[in-house]
Amino acid sequence: MSAPFPLPGYKETALVDPFEVFVGPVYEQGEPPARRFAILIDARHVNMRGVIHGGMLMTFADAALGQAVWDVTDRAPSVTLNMQSQFLKPARAGDVIVVQPELIRRTRSFVFMRGDFRVGDETVLAVSSVWKLLGQD
Amino acid sequence: MSDHPAGIPPEAEIASTGGFNKYVGPLYRLPDSADGAVRRFAFAVAAQHMNGSGSVHGGMLMSFADTAMSRTARLSTDAKSCSTVSLNCDFVGPGKLGDVIEARVRVTRRARSMVFVSAELVAGERILLVATGLWKILGQA
C-alpha cells in the first residue's frame, strides 16, 4: 500500500484506535518512556494544495502524545481534555515527520504533554495537550 | 432524492471534494443560519472515525473542526485559500457511533491578513468540542 518507511531503526507502532489505523501506520523507535514516533506523509494525508492536512497532523499528534501518556501511566485509561496546535511550516507528501514527546508534568489526575513535530531539523507543528486520567478526580 | 447518510439533510452540499477530507469524509456544508452569522457543516460518524473506547477519535473531531473553520475563514475573504496558524480545542464530551455531528462556526474578527474563528461541534443538544483558531489569508501580505 504505502512506501517502505525510510528511516532505519523504526518499527510499526501497535495502534488500537480504528481512526488511527485508518490514517496510519505510525512508526516508533526506542523504548518506553522515551519512544520517538514518526509518520511518512502519503497521498491520503494531503489537501488540495499538496500540503499535509492540519487534521492529519493533529491526529498524529494526538496518537503520539497519547502513546507517551500510556508510557508514563502504565497504560492507565485517559482522554484528551485540551490540545493546542501551532502550525509553523507546511509539510508535503514524501516528508517524514518525527516527534519525541515531552512529559511536562504529571499529577494524580492530569498529564501535561508537549511535542515538537519535525521534518529534518525544522519544526512544522508544536503541540501542547492536557490529558485526564479516568477515575481520578 | 439524496444519497446522504441518515440525519444529513438533502440540501447539504459535499464539502470534501478531495485529499484528506474526502478520505475521512464525506463532510457536508449545511445552509447558513438564518441571520447569516453562523456557517454550518456536518458529518455522520462511521466505524472508521472511532477510538478504542467507543467514542469518536479526537483526531477526527479536530480534522472536521479544522476543515469547517478553514472554509469559514476563506468564505470571509476573496482569497483562494487560508491556512491554519493555530487551533485550540477543548474536548467537552464524547461523540458516539451514528451521531450526526454539526459544526457551528463564526468569524470573530476578519483583519487584513488574518481571520479569527470560533466553533462549536454538537451532536443534537450535546456539545462535544469548542475551538478557537487563527487563519492566515494566503496570497496577501
Q: How would you concisely characterize the structure shown here?
A:
The complex is a heterodimer of chains A (137) and B (141). Chain A has 137 residues and is α+β, with helices and mostly antiparallel strands.
Secondary structure blueprint with pairings:
The complex is a heterodimer of chains A (137) and B (141).
Chain A: E1 11-12, H1 18-23, E2 27-29, E3 36-40, H2 54-73, E4 78-87, E5 96-99, E6 102-106, E7 110-119, E8 122-133
Antiparallel strand pairs in A: 1-2, 2-3, 3-5, 4-8, 5-7, 6-7, 7-8
Chain B: E1 13-14, H1 19-24, E2 28-30, E3 39-44, H2 58-75, E4 82-91, E5 100-110, E6 114-123, E7 126-137
Antiparallel strand pairs in B: 1-2, 2-3, 3-5, 4-7, 5-6, 6-7
Q: Can you give a write-up of this model?
A:
The complex is a heterodimer of chains A (137) and B (141). In chain A, strands 1, 2, 3, 4, 5, 6, 7 and 8 form an eight-stranded antiparallel β-sheet that branches. Helix content of chain A is 19%, strand content 37%. The longest helix of chain A has 20 residues, at 54-73. Chain A has helices spanning 18-23, 54-73; strands at 11-12, 27-29, 36-40, 78-87, 96-99, 102-106, 110-119, 122-133. Chain A has a single domain (11-133), classed as Thiol Ester Dehydrase, Chain A. The N and C termini of chain A lie far apart (44 Å). Chain B has 141 residues and is an alpha+beta fold. Chain B has one domain: Thiol Ester Dehydrase, Chain A (Roll), CATH 3.10.129. In chain B, strand 2 (28-30) and strand 3 form a beta hairpin. Chain B is globular and about 40 Å long. Chain B starts with 12 loop residues before the first strand and ends with a strand. The interface between A and B is medium-sized, with 35 and 35 residues.
